[in-house]
Write the structure tokens for this entry.
Amino acid sequence: MADLSINLAGIRSPNPFWVASAPPANTAYQCHRAFEAGWGGLVWKTIGEPIVNVSSRYSSLDLNGQRMVGFNNIELISDRSPETNFREIAECKKRWPDRAVIASLMTDTRENWHEMMKRSLDSGADGVELNFGCPHGMCERGMGSAVGQNPDVIETIVGWVMEAAQIPVIVKLTPNVTDVTRSARAAKKAGAHAISLINTINSITQVNLDKMCPEPYVAGQSTHGGYCGPAVKPIALNMVQGCAADPLVQLPISGIGGISNWKDAAEFIALGSTGVQVCTAIMHYGFRIVEDMIDGLSDFLDSKKMKSVNDLRGKAVHTIGNWENLNLNYKRIASIDYDKCIGCNLCYIACEDGAHQAIALVSPNGHGLGPGRLPGKPVPQIKEVECVGCNLCSLVCPVDQCITMVDVSTGKKPMSWKEYQTRLAAREMKAIPAHA
Amino acid sequence: MPLQPRSNSKELAKTMGDIEPCYRPQEAKVEADRCLYCFDAPCIMACPTGIDIPGFIKKIANANLVGSARVILESNILGASCARVCPTEVLCEGACVMLDRDEKPIKIGRLQRYATDALWEKKANPFPKTPKRNGKKVALVGSGPASLGCAAELARLGYQAVVFEKDAEPGGLNRYGIAYYKMTPEVAKQEVKWVKDLGVEFRCKSEVGKNVKVEKLLKDFDALFLGVGLGKAHRLGIPGEDKKGVVEALEFIRWIHTKPLHQVPVGSRVAVIGCGNTAIDAVTQAKRLGAKEAVIVYRRGEEDMPAYEYEYELAKTDACGFLFHTAVVEVLGGKEVTGLRLAKTRTDKHGKTEIVKGSVFEEPFDMVIKATGQEKQAPAWKKFLPKLKFDDKGRIEVQKGTGQTSVPKVFAGGDAVNGGREVVNAVAEGKKAALAIHAMLSGQKVAGPIQGSRLGHQDGPRGSGFLQPVRVPELEAAYFTAMKNGAHRG
């Protein structure tokens, strides 16, 4: 069994799975339940001056029967007093010494930040996370994403925090910026020990067409909520990789954004995260999901002969680069396994109307039996010359491994756009003719 | 009295209630979401009326129920009936690609019912725009599925369609001849209303040969469609056949549709002769109406029965009995039936059944239901329309694909032409005739429903089932032959 323990900027936990700072991390009761289920750490629901919440608070994006593909909330930070929160943190830390308990903080003045840092230390928290990301409510009061969207302000406030920091400081970044690495660099410059990302994305998930008002509905009105859940994973991965690859950042990363299972977690870790934080999947299914996360990740690492989860960290970061460096002479095309084809023809219509008209419908003769129920029914056939290898057909195909993309030799040496431009300028080659 | 009501309303509401209730919204959404939305979908090819099945299912998933029902009714005005009575396992559902993916086809029939029921409940008009009348008139004889399919299509093409029905209410077999637990008379009535809403006129208690003359129809109308169905049940040709308590299956089912359920008479021990789908309808309903025993008597074996597998399962679930390889020799009793004299049969090497000598036995029954098929209308119609040609089986001869008969201006479809098939076949034949009548009267050809893009086909598509319906058993035979000959699938 692979070693799943991590050390994120000095914060140790027996596995990389932390409960994110959110409704599941609101109380000692929930913290105990999370740790009983096996979570390696928990970032407490953000502590600050207690707020007052509204009803209702959550909304979701459902897709073809799958609930909560995306999720948003307009809930604010903890509505409990700092006294209660820090007391419960102390209690949890005492009962679960091997787990990581991190205090998430949000406040305003230098003095208040110092005060919060002291109280965190006193509570026995393993570290703090600075909430610079919350995109609703708190930002209107000059906190949350109002801080996180301005690198100069990040730098200033992290600076204040570091003056009083005796335990590791993680800065949580908002994705509601054009370039998250600028925020990450500011955190680094000010001396932060780690970053966590992404916080939630500004969103309106749906409009109730009877009430002509979005959900979550509050007395005829709504507001922009923070978006998260499986649908945001691609955005989060992109930002995590961006920070991991940036030579001016080089901070440990706690990855957040749509992580629901071990595979999602492994992808975040492969793109540079040390550990991950989970919220929406817990809000959907409860703390019990961590059992499979631990199990699945461990088996995966074993199958890759990795002794520790740390061996996985960053493994895929360097396969991502600029488009101009991609090999123009690489080619793959679609290949249909007629023994698996069920005859839905989604590949055909997707390619015909949505892509490059590279699939024909032809007689099934010569393709084995073709779609089983209706012999004689036309079957899709890849026009190999026309196929640009875009992947679309393999993406729409509802049968696993029915359409696969196979490498074909172009007989040409690798050449990137950058090299192409250089060789064109040097008149070493002619321009590649435009597509008809 | 051997035949008498044998159950109370409360009990009957349970036993005769829907065998498959309408989906609840959540169930419908989950099922609709399973549909892959195939292009050039096999289910459409297997539907004789060519309903755009993935299209209507997508609309259910997208909460556009009226639109969904419209898609169904545009292709098949009896879509609500067909949702209940189609043998979907050998039609659309039998062709579903899901069978090849994870074995469970989309429940197309139930989704179709969900959409059409929703339209009905919302009291929405599926065809708010009716085309201008073109001044031409078509008469239709009979108001069963074939005529309704034809009349609806004609009305939508601008014709004045007038339906002549001998019964008190329109609907034909759909109104009076479907097992109650599959479909209540209200469904048939609602469908007739949709046809009426299109501007079709119904003249009930109008019977050709009695108060309607064919010559007059031919004179007053630009074309004539015969959707006259089949006649009375075949005679068994055995002694005692006319005793009290011997009933035709369709007559028995008609009672169920015309009387309050608790007043429908049924025997205590019921024998149903024959083993087609109508026989199953009769035996299961006899049982559900309170018969102590209800038994199918069939000359051949289980493997030969014409009833669909699904129907057979229904009868078994209802604890109906089966006497296979058994022939009826005589109906016993005085004035009233008291039993049947039966004999065991065997099949000779030519596939003919013969009675096994010395195997005669008797069984007590107080009701005997004949379900060995119906007579053709040929004898009557030879009188009404001497030039109308029939085939050697007594079916009206028509041109394939148009329903045109040997008599100019006269078209036909449904059971009178095909000898007795599904409701959906009758509707399709009615529609094809409507398109052919339109072509004849206007010189314009209207294509039947086919799916959108056909570009890229090198071999020509099979297309919608309306043009060339696919029957799954035939396909499966081809499939298994191919498998035997070494083809394989992953």
Notes: Chain A touches chain B through 32 residues (CB under 8 Å). The first strand of chain A starts at residue 6 and ends at 8.
